[in-house]
Structure formats: C-alpha cells, structure tokens
Amino acid sequence: MRYLYVKWVHKDPGAPIHIYSEIGDDSYERRKVEIYKDGRKGYADSSEEYGGTALGVMPVPSLAEIAAQPEFQPKEIPAEEFHNLWMKRRSKA
Amino acid sequence: MIPPMKQMSGAEMVIQALKDHGVEHIFGYPGGAVLPIYDALFAANDLVHVLVRHEQGAVHAAEGYARSTGKVGVAVVTSGPGATNAVTGIADALMDSIPLVVLSGQVATHLIGTDAFQECDTVGITRPCTKHNWLVKDIADLPRILHEAFQIATTGRPGPVVVDIPKDIQFKKGFYVEPDSIVHRTYHPAFEPDIDAISQAVSLMASAKRPIFYTGGGIINAGPAASRALRELVELTGFPITSTLMGLGAYPASGKNWLGMLGMHGTYEANNAMHDCDVMICLGARFDDRVTGRIDAFSPGSKKIHLDIDPSQINKNVRIDLPIIADAGQAIKAMVKVWKQKNCKTDKAALAEWWAQINRWRSKQCLDYKQVNGLIKPQYAIDRLYELTRGRDLYITTEVGQHQMWAAQRFKFEEPNRWMTSGGLGTMGYGLPAAVGVQAAHPDSLVIDIAGEGSIQMTMQEMSTAVQYSLPIKIFILNNRYLGMVRQWQQLLHGGRYSHSYSEALPDFVKLAEAFGGVGIRAEHPDELDAAILKMIDVKKPVLFDCVVDQKENCYPMIPSGAAHNEMILSDAEEETTEVSDAGKMMV
Known about the structure:
heterodimer; A: alpha+beta; 2 helices; globular; B: 6-stranded parallel beta sheet; 6-stranded parallel beta sheet; 24 helices; 20 strands
C-alpha cells in the first residue's frame, strides 16, 4: 500500500484542488479523499462514494508520470497522514 | 510466516477487532454483562459510541449507518433484555440483507444455564434471525470468531451476526491475532458469475420482444459500482426498468427508462409490464409476495433470468429459467462486457411497440390524486417535501405504513444508499433510529425520517439520542390519527369496521419535541406547508414536524390481495367494486 497527495492547480470550482489516495499493490486506488477550494470534501472507497468522488477505473500512474503534467504536483505521504484525513472525511472541518 | 500475536483481555480484543475492521461508529447500551467492553471502550478515542435509549434503537441505527454507507453496522448490547430488545432489529436486518455485527454480553460461563440475573439463551433466540451466531466459550476462540463475524456479515448475501460474549471471557487474557491470519475453511460465497450463464442471459435478452429489468436491494448492497454498471446496461439495451422498495436509487428516477416501483403499491405501468413481459431480468431481488401478488398469475408468459448472490433464493417462490449466482455488480458488469463483445442488437420494432404499450399504461397517471381545499393530502405533503429538498445532500428513512408507500412512490431517488426503509420485516419504529445512524455517518447532510404518528411512537425515545449527539434529524410525521394502512385494509377487507385503528389520544408532538430538547413544528393547512418545511430544513436541531393530513386518504394504486399484476385498482371508486377473495384476505 502507498499513499499519494496530489495538488491540482486549476481555476475550476467544480474540481478538487487536493487529492489524497490510498493505492494498493496493484496500483488501483483503494480509498480517496478530495478537497475543494471552498473546503467541501468528497470521498470514496469500494462501498461508498460521496460528494462526487469515485475511485479511478484505471491504475494510478507513477509519481513521475503524474508530475510530468504541469497542473499536478504529486508527492508520497505517510500512511498516518492519510488515515487521519480519512477519519475526518465526514466532517466539514 | 507465524502471524503476529499480542496478549490482551477479551474486552480489549473486541475493541482491537473493531479497529482492525475499520469500524468508526458503534451504537449501544451498556449493562452489567458488557461492562468490561465499555471499560475498554473508555480509552478508545477513535471509536465513536452513540448511546441509544433502547437496544432496538441501537440495531436500527446500525442498520441506517450500514445502509447509507455500504459498511458494516455495529451494535453492542448487554445480556438478557439487552439481547431480546435487539431481536426486532436483528430480524429486520436479516430480511433486508443488512450487514451488522451485534455484540452481546452474556453471564459468566459458570452461570450459564442457572437462570442467572439477566441471563437468556441469546444464541438460541437469535439463531433463526441471524446469518450466523456464536457463543464464545473460550478466550482462545474470541479473535477468530470476531474476524469471522465481520467476514460473514459483509460477504455473500450480507446479514446480521451475533457474537455472545460471557463476562468472564471479556476479563480473561489471551492472544489476539490479526484479521488476515484467519481463513475460513468452508465459507466461500460466490462472487464472480459463471460466464456461460452470463452469455446465455445476454442472448435471451437480445432476443426479447417485451423485456423488463426487475431490480432490487442486491444492487445497492453490491456497492456504487454496481449501480453504475446497471445504468450502463439499461442504456445499452434500452429496456424498461422497475425496482423493488429496497432497490430504489440504483437506477435514477429521472432516467428515461424508469417505470417507477413495482409491487402491491407500485405503478400501473411497472406492474403491467411485469405481467406482460416475455423476458424478465431479475437483478438482486427475491420475488417476495409484495412483488409477485398471486403467484400462479405472476408474469405467466415470461422467461425469467434471476441473478442473486444467495443460491437459496433461486426457485424459492417462482420457477426460474436461467439462474446466475454472483455478486450483482460483477454479474452486471459481465453482462455489459458480453453484450458489447457479441455486438448484440435488440429487436427495435418489437421494443418500440413494447414502449408504446408501456406509454399507454403510463397515460393512466396512476399516482394522481384529488386535492381537497383546506386539507393537506399526504401525497401533497410528500410532493412538497420532495420539491423543497430537491438537489440537497439528502437521506430519507421511513417508518412502515401508508406514509412509507407514498414516499416510495413519490420521492425520486437519483443515487443508491439514499433511501433507508424496512422492507421485508416491515418494522414500525425503524425510521427514527435509522435516521440517527445515517446522521451519525453523514453529520452535514439533511436526514429526514418520513413517519406516521403510529410508527413514531414505537421508538420515539431516540429523539433524546439525537439531541444528546447534536444529530439534527428531521422527523416528518404524516399525522392522520389512524394506523393508516390498517384502516385502509379494514375498509377494503373487513366491511369498514375500523377495529382499534384510531388513536383517540395522541401526544402534542410540538410540545413533545420541546420536552426532548428539539424543535416542534406543526402544519395543518396546505397554505402553510411550504414555509413550515423550509423552517424545518433550516433548523440545526432535531425536529418533530407534525403534518396534519386528510384522515381517510388511501394509498393507491394497489394490487388487491390475491390478485395479479394486471388487476390493479387505482382509486376508491374502483375499490368499491373489487371483490377480494378469502385467499386474498389471508395474504394481507
């Protein structure tokens, strides 16, 4: 399992600006939290989709491939950071 | 590799297992036989415990939580009355395939069988209403049983399980093993479909002239991906689609192929299409009596495909031509894939004629009702509630009765997991505690329990739970002073003898709400309804909304007891001329 944070630089209020993903050994997303500019959150796992967030249907590309696109700023994050965010995903704060 | 083992008490094992299975919320009520678990819970800051007011409420809240999140619901109850109070909720979850883990305390092992204080035979009492249950007699078995409990509740056909844990086992020390260390020897439910069966099903579908998708709660249980696959399959084929009460939201009500709900209070077009179809594709539903009506007249001319994850459902009530045992999502995805691979084409001329017939049935406008000046019609109240909450992040629960059917008919669900109702057991009192569970999972969402004044009094005490945890649920009561569905059947079947179905005395729901620490709102006239509903939505506290409605309104359309799908009645005028057979009266 690995954990990824991607900052998405754009001006579309309908798209998230912070994307946190838990990625399985097969490179598919297991859990995901997205945060919008207005603070709104979306999240998804295999049983639940909320706020317009869904797990990707394709394997997640490598960090280098994501970083090659100028609007994305990805980095690996510790599991604990993702878990803490996941536990708070249902609250606005 | 030797699995990691840690020594801890039985109570600590329970908490550790909850964490290991990703549990975030539990609903419970402490008592003597579960005090060690509650003691361990005291230090578990990352588990949210919701203290209910009655154990039935704990289980319904766990059901609401599970149904709205797709995750397992967890309830903790004490021995004896704690366990027996939970039975209604457990039976409800079994009938509606809701994944629950219910942990009950039991008297110490040396006291079992001595009629000890608060002792009862919990595994005996819950055996027929659980998917599986266990009495833990040895601390060495506890971690395995806990992990099995989660596996069995959530896989295959989901359902409730009970783990009965004697108090001395909660105190004893033992070695905890991680969930991954446990592999069940015999329990391996089907998940992937047989590809030959899928291929046959797709061929049958492509040859159909009058097809229909009959869908159910199995698609909701299979997760959001199953609903997406269903939408794609309907789009690919262009077939009409209907759903059971439990399946609402899997396909969007705004979808052009949507016929509305089927069954006893389903739409005229859905039921007639079920009766006259030539190929019925049942996806995650179980041919229950509210859906089939008279079984020997049920869809007599159709070939029937039945997709179900539970093999015991095949040929149980209706003879099936082509069974598929699999997870609904996996099977529907496979149908989509095979349909595309085979480049299947439908019989367009036949399908156009089928849709023309369906549109003739639709033109009956079977959900219309007569508005009367000065009275709030219950249908009008539901319509206004729907319009004024439309587009919001909304979850609906219901109690059981007329209001439940009006809500199912008139609320238009676009997404799965937004509709929580007691379908199989028909449990009055489900909706309020279920709303507590939904709101705990979705604290910022609008959660409304559409209720009747009869049902709501069965679990009213959970208003106090909502107030304690600042869960701003809205209880929208259609108050006709009658046990409305009972009154309707008494009118139809028992010569208008309204035996004990009228409530001479009712609480003042506005004052009652205030007594609980919530907010009470009443509407008695159609002109004041919109403003009152908007006020209810804006209040950030639990609300009891007393909507005083026409006392004598009946719920139509309706398949009379013992009748077939094509023998629906649409209004009171037709009902007066409809004879109900003795066999039909027995089916109510």
